[in-house]
Amino acid sequence: MFPKKTTRTSGFTLVELLVVVLIISILLTLGASALKGAGGKGVTTAVATSEAIFEEARSIAIGKGTTSRVLVDINNVRSETYLRKILVAFQKLDDDGEPMEGNWELSSRGFTFPDGVFFSKEFSKKAFQSGGAQLDEMTLSGVSPLFNGRYIYYEFNSEGICTTGLSSTGDYQSPSFVVGHGARPAGQPDPRTTSEGRRDFGGFVVWRNGATSMFRDASQILSDRDPTTF
């Protein structure tokens, strides 16, 4: 009788298992770090593109000799663009070259902020320095059904002056445009800040001549506040 031959099955040693666990832990850490930084990049992109759109609106107002507006979508029935889409509209001119009141035309299809980035009604004001006055709103109609509805707006006149910051006495207080990183809870239109994004805000002020100055740090916008809503 020959002795029964045994077959050894190969497997992982304890050291090999520990190495695999270590590698997985490193990959998870790197992935979490990348996700944590995604919000900041989104806010930066939104601010830079919005500055370009403000310049577009000002150039259209001067070039066409009319009034133009940067519009922020506040139609919460369109949840995918609510507080996330901005457009440029300008007043059409009549045969004599005069702006027609309430007759608006879109210059483009606009820009939608990156995922997780929203316009802040809380920190975007007509008078940023004093922290006062809500921005004006308008109803856009007569354009594509995709864009008809309610908007917050910033306005430029035919001289390129940002009239949003002008008071009835002619004084000017720079309005602010602020966006932040957050999330929209299921079934609710209004976004909320997340624990990771509470200080992840950016934006700029708009001067009388239409130029913009970006906030260097979120503390310039938030001060000592810890926001929870937009």
Please identify the structural class as seen in this structure: alpha+beta
CATH architectural designation: 3-Layer(bab) Sandwich
Taken as a percent bin, the fraction of beta residues is 25-35%
Distance between the termini: 84 Å
Overall pLDDT metric:
81
Largest sheet: 6 strands, antiparallel
Share of helical residues: 10-25%
H/E topology pattern: HEEEEEEEEEEEH
**How many structural units, i.e. domains?**
1
Number of alpha- plus pi-helical segments: 2
- State the shape: globular
CATH topology-level name: minor pseudopilin epsh fold
**CATH superfamily grouping:** minor pseudopilin epsh domain
CATH class: Alpha Beta
Number of DSSP strand runs:
11
Instruction: Please mark out the parts with pLDDT under 50 across 5 or more consecutive residues, or reply none.
Output: 29-39
As a whole number of angstroms, the C-alpha radius of gyration is 25 Å
